[in-house]
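If you are new to this repository, start here. Below is one unmodified record pulled from the training split, so you can see the exact layout before writing a loader.
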Amino acid sequence: MLVAEMTTHETEALIEAMRIGPKSIGGVFAEGFRDWVALVEDALPEGTPKEVVRRRALTLVCATVGSVAVARTSVLERLRKSGRTVKHGKLM
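And here is the target side for that same chain:
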């Protein structure tokens, strides 16, 4: 399913999935995700139908998060291939 096709119910399910793990991490992540989506919604043009605003905001936020994840994975893969790694935030 494309993020742009997510319903509010599916969005809430995604947020619940983010909460898996320690509450100190998952809860904060889920709250930040909701806040970020709300900020993007507020920045979209007035007069846009509510459901379109929600889809666009979710798409933009998820695309941004996905880009960061892909970039991080790419860097880690290049490090792995070179025999290096990152451990506890330090290049080894």
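Two things worth knowing about this chain: Helices lie at 8-18, 23-43, 50-81. Residues 3-84 form one domain.
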